[in-house]
Each structure stands twice: as structure tokens, then as C-alpha cells.
Automatic annotation (TrEMBL), chain B:
Keywords: Chromosome partition. This is MIP18 family-like domain-containing protein. PANTHER family: CYTOSOLIC IRON-SULFUR ASSEMBLY COMPONENT 2B, CYTOSOLIC IRON-SULFUR ASSEMBLY COMPONENT 2B-RELATED. Transmembrane segments: none annotated. Residues 41-56 have a biased composition (Low complexity). Residues 68-144 form the MIP18 family-like domain. Residues 1-28, 41-64 are annotated as: Disordered. InterPro entries: FSCA_dom_sf (IPR034904), MIP18 (IPR039796), MIP18-like (IPR002744). Residues 1-13 have a biased composition (Polar residues). It comes from the Eukaryota. GO terms for biological process: chromosome segregation; protein maturation. It comes from Elasticomyces elasticus. Belongs to the MIP18 family.
């Protein structure tokens, strides 16, 4: 059998590999000259003209296409390719079978060698004339090949096709109608793309409407891709391409704008979204003189989206659209801009007259959006609106009205700030002309308006800060006036309760400091210093002033001034013997500045010089102090300041510091310096200091010495609870960070911290705590896996005999400690929570079932203590087995178990949220027990509140028929909670009861 | 709700609405630096982390009585049936128009909550519905030892007498709540309540 016959046998199979193989085989023979092209074509003759079987004709063309596609270049001569091309096109005149294959064959031919102009024109004519309209071919794949071919022609032979259009006026209508009725998204994707060539490059004036309509018929796109769509075309892809078509040519404007605005009245929010996006695209790409004809029409339609907001995102898009129009005209000429802004100004002024209303607020938004489009628009709007605004302002005594007007004014100022940020040279003359009026009005409001007029004063405050931020609008003198006013408010306004806006005032001052740091340095800071005496009375420490002052450090440009002044003040206060409380307050202020402020950086980290300037002198203070005159708070605070400055510094820098400090550190740690501070007193400092130091900086034997000393301190009887807690944290930190995991057991044994021996002897409460601290350090580190597992088992074994206090210790294992963090160079394993969950939880859950009643609470407590710190995703898979013990936890009645109950309730809350199905079988038990947890006599307020939150989820998350039986009981018992002593509990009770009462409505809806 | 009585009512700025935080000067000011003070988890209760609440069963039972502000907070978040705004921001319910009267005799436990409602316009056709919404909300949210008395503020509505009669009559309120479309409106109003 010949190749063509073989091919035809296979052609209707779904698997096309065999077809391809046969075609490739033919191609190879052609290439090797074993088969002449003429013989090849002749062999097709009987099949390609088979009068009785159209299927065979189509398949033969397909064979031809496959063979050509399989041919390498240079096999066919120019003449041969031309011959084939004519052959295929000639067929189209008489026979439309295999049109897709014909297109494929042509694409393959073109691939073998570029066509000349005439061939390109001939190809497109042959298709448009003979296969019109394309929709007559039912198979998407056939149309797809044609669309691809024409796309190729439009991409590569633009001149040839344009000439065709220029010479023949009848081509375009046929070309447009050729595509009518195409519905397949794959074809449309290419169609929308190829149509853009004539739309943007050809002179289509006389066909604009037809051309526009041919694409706008598809608007709005409502296509939803089928699930598991193999082609991955989204409705957004189609929307984007269609939008580009609509916006392709200014000639479309007379059709596009009216039809788009018509669709803007649609009730579908999605349609409106598409309309707004399309309008934006049109505005961007149409010519300005075309847009000029429609600008007012657009304004008249778009404004309603802002004045009567249906959906906030639509309002935002409408605002953006309005701004785009103004931006377009600002580069074009004053005439169109004036014509566009005139109705905008008129409308805004009308609404401002009624301020404050929703409409006046909308007017403010419009002003903001349009003005921030370009300086020219901002200038014209300001000229159009501000005279009216301030006439209204001075003409009205109503504070509410004035507030509404200032709100609109602030929007305009924000627009100018945007402009200035984009281009610092932007001129704001029109705003400047009213700056004095505005500033005076707002300063007057801040000084003399009744303090209870909170919104009015807050708007004025924001306005003052904004005017300062609009660089170049205020004169230096006006800025000073603004700074003085706000500084005065911060320092001297003492309003309590309603009317207290000091927080806003402080924020405004830090904002002002960003734009006018010099004025704040020159005027505010001296004023603050006046209010901070060297030695205040014990009764009257100026805490609020200090708080405000420290918050100024959040502005980088004055950070340095703030901390320097604080340091000097502390120096003087100490020197003159000010009270300890005042010294502490100053220290807190310094710490606040370093913690929450914005210190200047150097190579991306906080300036290392701050260590010598701030940390060292503060440390020196207590190193020199005698052990009696030591302020423990100072030690802690200084430790944290040192930590913040030191921890990001390089190894080199840290080594220098560490070597310098080592001497006094080790002398006081060993207790060999009787005059200096004692070991225990220094522990808080050591904790933060060693947290900052990189592991590479410290020698192994130093750590062993330190660990020994701390172990002795923790195991000894001496110190009270507070220092001991710090010592335990330090132990966890040192083990986590500095102890070599490979030699861990040796190190622990050497320092007396080996867990099994700690627990082995008669275990004192202290030794148990130390054991937990050691395991915590190891667990988070995650390096000494086997050892950690063994120790953890040892801790779990305690539960079979221990009391509740020991069981509660399990909470310390996972409780977050910010000292053990990566910023502090600790080793934090990503999996330690999973590890402890996998090792501890199954055995505890098992023991709960088998333990004798006396020991059961210990297991329950340990379980909740661990679970409360685990993310829900970790415990979710085990929820089914965890539910029974957690339910039993809610029965614990000891007042000391409140935290455990709260932890269990939080887990139930998450479970109800995410996996109500798992809880369904326990509905009865869950509702009853949670309800019991709302009772005031046995539960703390936060447990009651949490129980009510949890209970409120039940009617929503569990099946209706499962909870309805409890409705009566719950609603009744919640009456008691409505009268709870605590307000927060009552609030939750109201929400919970509403949720359960709501169950009733469901019944009525069903009927 | 197509025929709006008052298309563009005055809206009170949220920062001017009474709130507990702003109205009552706090007895104990929370200082900015308080969070910076050295904190240690206590050993007796290791579950409470440094920042965890200090509440425990013993010291939290300082009673907080139900006061006017609390009643205000319950009803100010109800939505107006014709504007997508809260009754508080429209000035329909005001803190100064809420009164809690203690029990009239030593033997009675029943206190009375009086709420005066101010319609946005004197001809507001939805006054009754608003009053009903306020009443339903309070009946559901306050303990049973309170008697709820919702009225229209004198001189603010042309239909005050009729509306007050309806709201004061237990039977008529109960009958109204049998009306399904009315229940739906009320539920929609209450949907925005926390």
C-alpha cells in the first residue's frame, strides 16, 4: 500500500502518532529524493478528489499538511512551494473539505520559506472569499487553524494586507463579517489579537462602526472556564484582549463611550467593573481631542458611582477614571481641561454647601482624585473650589459644617502632597494662596474650639500636619506656627476622657517632624526640655511628657536628638539625686526610643557607635555601683538597650566589645568582686547581653564556666522566684545557642545540668524547673535529636506520679520566649513543634484513658499546656483522639486550672471553625460542658468569655438538627450570663444568645 | 424602601459618638512604658506568659454595673432600615436619651430602661420599625430584671402618640413579631449588631 493509503487507514484514529509517523516517512523519502514531488502529488489525486467520500478528501489534505510540516527547509524549491500553494488554494475554490488542514498546510509551507506580497494577498483572499463565513465550519479545530493562518499573515505581511485593504474597499466588510458568530474562547483569544492590526494600523474610518460592533458584541465577557480546562484560558485573559480592541482606535469613540456608559447602568457589579476598566483603557489610548468630545458626558455618568457608592471598588475605579481624563488633558491643552473641570467644580461646590453629608464627603474624594492627576488640574480645581470653601467656612458658625469643609480641604492638600512627592518642583500656587486662611482656621480650631468637638479638632490637627507635609506651601514662619501649636497641645492640653486627642497630637507632631525636622528640633524639643525638670517631685514625674517625647523618636531625622537629650537628662538627674522613679522613667523612654523608634542605620544595621555612646556609659553606671545601690530595673532596661544596639553588629565588632567586657563580667559572675554587683542581680543583663552576642564570639570554656555558675544559682535555694525565672531563661538560651550539640551530654554532665540525673535524685521543684529549661533549649535547637527524645521521655514519665504544679511546667516547654529568636542568633528548628506533638501527645492521650482518677488531672493539664502553644494545623489531624480528653479538661474545677480550661476552649473554638464535622458526635457533651464553663461561680472572666465565644459558633457550624434540641436550654441559661458581673462577658453573652435565638428563624424560612 | 423620607441626613462623625473609652476617665491610666517594665512569668502559674492577662478567679470579680453607655452600645450599631448607616451615627439614638431607673421599691428587683428614639425627620414612616428594632434588641440582650420602655422623643415625630402606644403594648409587639416581612426587616436591622 502507498503511504497515502496507509495514512487514510489510520486517519480516523484518535491517536495521531501513527499518522505522524507515516507522514514523516513520506517526508524523508521526499528529502532523500526517493520520491519526486510530482509523484507524491499524483498519488494524492484519487483520494483528494474522491467524489463520494468527503471524509477521505479531508483526510488526504490532512496528510498533505502533515507531510509538509515534517519537511525540513530547503527540500522544496521556490517553484515547488509556489506550486503546492496554488494547488491548495485552488482546491478551496471548489471543495471546502479539509479547510483546517489546508490552513495548516499553508502555515507549514510559509514556514519553509517566506511568501512574496502577491502570495500573501492571494492566500487571505482565497480564505475570505471562499470560506466566508467561518462559522459554517462546525469543528473548532478547523476554524482554529484558519484563525492561526490569518494571524500569521497579519503578523508577518502587514504591508501586503494593508495594501489589499487600501486598494479594495470591499475587502474590509467581508473581512469583518468573516468572523461573525465565533464563540470558542481559544479562537477568540487569537481573533481579538489579530484584529488589533487593522484596528490600530489601517485607515478604517469608513468601517469603524462595523469593526467596533464586531468586537463589542462580545462585551461583557461572561465566559467561565470549565473545571480542569486544559487550555488555561481565563475570563480575565479574554477581557484584557477585548479591552485592548475596544481601546484600539480613537475612531471607535462615538460608538464605544455611549455603549459603555449604557452598560454602566447594568445591575451586575461585574459588568460595571468591566465597563470602568474598558473606559479607562479608552481614555489612555484614544486621542485627547477625541476624548474632549466626551469628557463631560463621562463625568456626568461616572460621578454617580462616587456620590452614591454601590461598591467601594467601583467608586475607586470611577475616581481613577476621572483622574485619568484630567491627566490626559493636562498634557494637551487648557481648553479641554477647563471644559472638563467646569462641571466638576460646580458639582463639588454645590455639595460643599451642604457639608457635612455623604455627598460632600464624595466631593472631597473627587477633588483628591482629580487634583492628584497633574499639577495643572490641581491648580485649576483649587482656584475653583477654595474661594467658595473659605467663604462658606467664614459664613457659618456651625462646627459640624466647618468640619465637613476642612475634611474636603484636607483631601485637596493630600492631592498636592501626592503631586509634590512625584515631582518636588511642582508648583502649588492656588493652594498657597489659601494656606494662610486654612492654617489660621485650623490653629484657631485647635486652640479655641470646645475640647469636646473631637472630630473637628482631629480634622484640624490632621490638616495642620498635612499642610506642613506639602513642602513649599507654607512659609518657614507658618511652619513654626504650626509646630508651636501642636507642641503646645502635646505638652499642655490636659483633657481626660472624651476630648482627649493627645495620641493624635503626638502622631501629628511626628509626622510634622518628617517634613520639617529642623523646626521640630528648634522649637518643639526645647519646649519639651522645659517641661522635663532635672529633679522633679516624687509626686509629679512628667510621665506624659516623657511618653510623648519618646514617641518622637519614631521619626528617624530627630531620633538622635531625642535619645541624646534623654541621656543627658538622665545624667543630670542621677547627678543631682533625682528619685529612682524618675531615673527609671527616663530609662524607659530611652528603651522605648530604641525599641520602637527609627534609629539611623549604617550598612543596613543600627549604627554601632550607639553602643559606645549609650550602652557603655549606662552599663558603667551599674558596674561601678555598690551592690546595695543597685537598681534592678535599670539593669534589665540597660540590658535590652545593649541587646538592640549590639545584636546586629559584625563578629569583629562584637568580639572587641566582648573582650573588653569579659573582665568585669567574669569577676562579678564568679562573685570575686565584692564591691561590684552580685551575680544574681546581674542575671537580667546577662540574659539580654548573651542574647545579642553571636555564637562565634564566645569561647567554649567561658560558656561552661557561665553555665556552671547559672546552674548553681538555679539549683540553689537562695534567690526568690523572679531572678530564678531569669536564670532559667538564661540557661535555655545558653544551651540553645552556645553549647556544641555534638558534645551536649558531656557539657550538661560537666555543668551539673544532665536531665536524667536532675530528675533521678529526689526531685525538688527547683531541679524540675531546671530540667524543663534545659529541655526547652534543646528542643528548640533541634540538633541533639536522640538526647532530646530521651529527656522528653523522662519528663513525661514524671506525670505518672507528679502533682499538678509539675504538670503545669509542660507549658514552659513551648511558651514563646522572645529571647529565643533568630534575631538573637538562636538555633530555632522549624519542626520542633511537630516533634513534641508526635512524641508527647499520643502517649499522654493514651495515659488519660488508663490513668487512675487521682493522676488523671495531671495528664489533662500537661496535655492542654502543650496544645495551647501549638498551631491548630499541627493538632488538626489528631483532633478526633484529642476531643475526649479536652472535654474532660473542661470538668477541672480547681481555681488554678483556669488557664488550662481557657486553652481547651480555644482549641474547641478553632475546631468548630475548621472541622465541625469531627466534633459532631460530641455535640451533647460539648454544648453541656461549654455551657457549664460560662457559670460565674466556677470560672474566671476570660474563661467565661471564651466559652461564650465558643458556644456562639455551635449553631452556625454544627448541623441544625444536632443543635436545635439544645436551643431552649442554652437560651435560658444564657439569661444568667446577660447579667454577668463583667462587661466583656455580657458582651459575649449577647452575641452568643443572638446566635442561638437565630436558630428559630431558620425554621420559619424553611416553611 | 424606595421612598426615602430623608435622602441626605446629617451623619455624626464616629469620633464624636459617645464611647466608653472616651467618656469615662479611666481610673488607672495605662502608661506607654508599662509594657517595657521588666516582666517575669510567675513560677506559681507558669502558664501565664509575661503578657498574658492578669485575670484570675479571685481578683476579677469587681462588678461592672450595666449602665447607659452599655445600653447605648447595644443599640447604636443597629442599622437604619432606609440608610446603610447605624442608628448611632444618624443620631436616632443618643446617649443622653437613655435612662436606667433603679427598682421602685426595696422589694422589687425590676429596673427600667427608658430609650427615647429621635426619627431622622418628623414624618419618618419607619419610626415604628426602628422603635421595634430597638425594643427587640434590648429584650434579647438585657437580663430579665430590666423592663424595657422604648418611646419616641417628644416633639420629634408627627405620629409619636400612635407609635408609643404600639411599642408600649406587649400584645401588639408580640403580634408584630409574628409578621414575617416585619421580622425580616428587623432582623436585617439587627444583623449589623455585634
Amino acid at each position: 500500500m502507498s503511504d497515502v493509503q496507509l495514512y487514510l487507514l489510520e486517519a480516523d484514529a484518535t491517536d495521531k502518532t501513527e499518522c505522524k509517523r507515516i507522514a514523516t516517512q513520506t517526508a524523508t523519502r521526499l528529502e532523500n529524493r526517493n520520491l519526486k514531488l510530482i509523484d507524491f502529488v499524483t498519488s494524492l489525486e484519487p483520494h483528494i478528489n474522491d467524489k463520494d467520500n468527503s471524509r477521505i478528501r479531508a483526510n488526504t489534505v490532512s496528510y498533505l499538511a502533515d507531510v509538509i510540516a515534517a519537511l525540513p527547509t530547503k527540500v522544496l524549491s521556490v517553484q515547488e512551494r509556489k506550486l503546492l500553494c496554488d494547488f491548495i488554494l485552488g482546491r478551496l475554490e471548489g471543495d471546502l473539505e479539509g479547510v483546517g488542514a489546508s490552513a495548516r498546510a499553508l502555515i507549514a509551507l510559509e514556514n519553509l520559506g517566506k511568501w512574496d506580497k502577491t502570495t500573501a494577498q492571494k492566500v487571505i483572499r482565497a480564505f475570505v472569499d471562499n470560506t466566508h463565513p467561518l462559522r459554517q465550519f462546525k469543528l473548532q479545530t478547523e476554524r482554529y487553524a484558519v484563525v492561526q493562518l490569518i494571524d500569521l499573515l497579519l503578523a508577518k505581511y502587514r504591508d501586503a494586507l494593508r495594501e489589499l485593504h487600501d486598494e479594495d474597499d470591499t475587502f474590509m466588510p467581508t473581512f469583518i463579517s468573516y468572523w461573525e458568530g465565533e464563540k470558542d474562547p481559544r479562537n477568540l483569544m487569537i481573533l481579538f489579537s489579530l484584529l488589533q492590526v487593522p484596528m490600530t494600523e489601517w485607515d478604517i474610518h469608513s468601517h469603524a462602526q462595523d469593526m467596533f460592533d464586531s468586537v463589542f458584541n462580545y462585551f461583557p465577557i461572561t465566559f467561565k472556564p470549565p473545571p480542569d480546562d486544559p487550555y488555561g484560558i481565563t475570563s480575565q485573559d479574554l477581557k484584557n484582549r477585548l479591552r485592548d480592541c475596544i481601546a484600539a482606535n480613537s475612531e471607535f469613540a462615538p460608538y464605544a463611550f455611549p455603549q459603555l456608559l449604557d452598560k454602566l447602568d447594568s445591575t451586575s457589579m461585574n459588568t460595571k467593573r468591566d465597563v470602568l476598566q474598558a473606559i479607562q483603557a479608552c481614555i489612555t489610548s484614544y486621542e485627547a481631542n477625541t476624548l474632549n468630545l466626551y469628557s463631560v458626558t463621562l463625568w456626568d455618568a461616572l460621578k454617580f458611582e462616587i456620590l452614591n457608592v454601590q461598591e467601594e471598588d467601583l467608586a475607586k475605579e470611577a475616581l481613577k477614571t476621572l483622574a485619568l481624563i484630567a491627566a490626559k488633558f493636562s498634557d494637551y491643552g487648557e481648553g479641554p481641561l477647563n471644559a472638563y473641570l467646569r462641571p466638576v467644580i460646580k458639582e463639588c461646590n454645590e455639595h460643599l454647601e451642604d457639608a457635612p453629608t455623604k455627598q460632600s464627603e464624595a466631593a472631597g474624594r473627587i477633588l483628591r482624585a482629580v487634583a492628584s492627576s497633574a499639577p495643572l488640574a490641581a491648580d485649576k480645581l483649587s482656584k475653583g473650589v477654595l474661594p467658595m470653601m473659605f467663604a462658606l467656612y467664614s459664613g457659618s458658625e456651625s462646627i459640624t459644617k466647618r468640619r465637613g469643609l476642612l475634611e474636603a480641604f484636607n483631601e485637596l492638600t493630600s492631592a498636592h502632597i501626592d503631586l509634590i512627592q512625584r515631582d518636588p518642583s511642582a508648583k502649588c500656587e492656588a493652594l498657597k494662596a489659601f494656606a494662610d486662611d486654612a492654617l489660621n482656621a485650623m490653629i484657631r480650631a485647635l486652640i479655641s474650639a470646645p475640647k469636646a468637638e473631637v472630630s473637628f479638632r482631629i480634622v484640624s490637627l490632621a490638616g495642620v500636619a498635612q499642610l506642613v507635609s506639602a513642602l513649599g506651601v507654607l512659609s518657614d514662619k507658618q511652619i513654626e506656627q504650626a509646630v508651636d501649636t501642636v507642641t503646645n497641645m502635646v505638652l499642655h492640653e490636659k483633657v481626660q476622657g472624651h476630648g482627649d486627642i493627645s495620641a493624635s497630637a503626638i502622631k501629628a507632631l511626628s509626622n510634622i517632624a518628617k517634613s520639617a525636622p529642623q523646626a521640630v528640633r528648634d522649637r518643639s524639643i526645647p519646649a519639651f526640655m522645659v517641661e522635663l525638670p532635672d529633679v522633679p517631685d516624687v509626686q509629679s514625674i512628667p510621665t506624659t511628657v516623657l511618653e510623648a517625647f519618646a514617641q518622637l523618636a519614631t521619626e528617624r531625622q530627630i531620633f538622635e536628638t531625642v535619645v541624646l537629650r534623654l541621656k543627658n537628662k538622665l545624667r543630670v538627674a542621677r547627678h543631682q539625686g533625682a528619685s529612682l522613679e524618675y531615673q527609671q522613667a527616663l530609662l524607659y523612654a530611652i528603651l522605648y526610643a530604641f525599641t520602637f523608634g527609627d534609629p539611623p542605620l549604617e550598612d543596613g544595621v543600627i549604627r554601632s557607635a550607639y553602643y559606645a555612646d549609650y550602652a557603655e556609659p549606662l552599663i558603667a553606671d551599674f558596674v561601678k555601683a555598690s551592690s546595695t545601690g543597685l537598681d534592678l530595673v535599670a539593669i534589665d532596661v540597660v540590658g535590652r538597650v545593649a541587646n538592640i544596639v549590639l545584636r546586629q553588629q559584625s563578629i569583629h565588632f562584637q568580639s572587641q566589645i566582648y573582650q573588653k567586657d569579659l573582665e568585669w563580667l567574669s569577676s562579678s559572675a564568679a562573685g570575686t568582686n565584692p564591691a561590684g554587683p552580685q551575680r544574681a542581680q546581674l542575671t537580667p543583663f546577662l540574659l539580654y547581653y548573651y542574647a545579642a552576642i553571636r555564637p562565634e564570639v564566645v569561647e567554649g570554656h567561658d560558656i561552661i564556666r557561665l553555665l556552671k555558675a547559672q546552674a548553681n544559682a538555679a539549683l540553689g535555694d537562695g534567690p526568690s522566684d523572679l531572678p530564678r525565672m531569669t536564670t532559667l531563661r538564661l540557661l535555655s538560651l545558653l544551651i540553645n545557642k552556645f553549647a556544641n550539640p555534638k558534645a551536649m551530654q558531656t557539657i550538661l554532665t560537666e555543668t551539673g545540668l544532665e536531665v536524667e540525673s536532675l530528675l533521678g535524685a529526689v526531685s525538688q521543684p527547683h531541679t524540675v524547673q531546671v530540667a524543663f529549661a534545659v529541655v526547652k533549649g534543646l528542643l528548640i535547637q533541634g540538633k541533639a535529636g536522640a538526647l532530646t527524645t530521651r529527656y522528653l521521655d523522662a519528663l513525661l514519665a514524671l506525670l505518672s506520679t507528679c502533682d499538678k504544679t509539675t504538670a503545669r511546667q509542660f507549658a514552659t516547654l513551648l511558651s514563646p520566649d522572645d529571647i529565643l529568636s533568630k534575631q538573637n542568633h538562636c538555633l530555632v528548628s522549624g519542626l520542633y513543634k511537630q516533634k513534641i506533638f508526635n512524641q508527647a501527645i499520643p502517649s499522654i492521650t493514651e495515659s488519660v484513658r488508663t490513668a487512675d482518677p487521682q493522676q488523671k488531672p495531671a495528664y489533662l493539664i500537661a496535655l492542654s499546656s502543650l496544645l495551647r502553644w501549638l498551631p491548630y494545623s499541627v493538632l488538626e489531624p489528631a483532633l478526633a483522639s484529642l476531643t475526649p480528653p479536652l472535654l474532660q479538661t473542661l470538668d477541672l474545677a480547681d481555681p488554678a486550672d483556669q488557664e488550662v480550661k481557657a486553652a481547651a476552649l480555644i482549641i474547641f473554638e478553632s475546631a468548630l471553625m475548621h472541622d465541625p464535622g469531627t466534633l459532631a458526635e460530641h455535640t451533647s457533651s460539648l454544648v453541656t460542658r461549654v455551657l457549664n464553663s460560662t457559670a460565674a461561680w466556677a470560672n474566671a472572666a476570660d474563661v467565661r468569655a471564651k466559652a461564650l465565644q465558643c458556644l456562639a459558633l455551635a449553631p452556625r457550624q454544627l448541623k441544625r438538627e444536632a443543635v436545635v434540641p439544645y436551643r431552649r436550654q442554652v437560651v435560658k441559661r444564657l439569661l444568667a450570663c446577660l447579667d454577668d458581673k463583667k462587661r466583656t462577658v455580657r458582651l459575649e453573652a449577647v452575641k452568643c444568645r443572638t446566635a442561638w435565638l437565630g436558630l428559630d428563624e431558620g425554621v420559619e424560612d424553611d416553611e | 424602601m424606595d421612598n426615602k423620607d430623608n435622602v441626605n441626613p446629617t451623619i455624626i462623625n464616629p469620633s464624636d459618638l459617645p464611647s466608653r473609652r472616651r467618656s469615662a476617665p479611666t481610673t488607672k491610666r495605662v502608661g506607654l512604658f508599662d509594657s517595657l517594665a521588666p516582666a517575669y512569668p510567675s513560677l506559681a502559674e507558669p502558664l501565664s506568659s509575661p503578657e498574658a492577662s492578669e485575670a484570675s478567679l479571685s481578683d476579677d470579680e469587681e462588678a461592672e454595673e450595666i449602665d447607659e453607655q452599655e445600653v447605648y452600645d447595644l443599640i447604636s450599631t443597629i442599622s437604619d432600615p432606609e440608610h446603610p448607616l447605624s442608628l448611632g451615627s444618624l443620631g436616632v439614638v443618643k446617649l443622653e436619651d437613655i435612662a436606667i431607673l433603679p427598682p421602685t421599691s426595696a422589694r422589687s428587683r425590676i429596673s427600667t430602661v427608658t430609650v427615647l428614639v429621635t426619627p431622622t425627620t418628623s414624618a419618618c414612616s419607619l419610626t415604628t420599625v426602628i422603635g421595634l428594632g430597638v425594643k427587640v434588641r434590648l429584650v434579647n440582650a438585657l437580663p430579665p430584671r430590666f423592663r424595657i420602655d422604648v418611646r419616641i422623643k417628644p416633639g420629634t415625630s408627627s405620629t409619636a402618640g400612635e407609635v408609643n402606644k404600639q411599642l408600649g403594648d406587649k400584645e401588639r409587639v408580640a403580634a408584630a413579631m409574628e409578621n414575617k416581612s416585619l421580622v425580616n426587616v428587623v432582623n436585617q436591622m439587627l444583623a449589623t449588631c455585634e
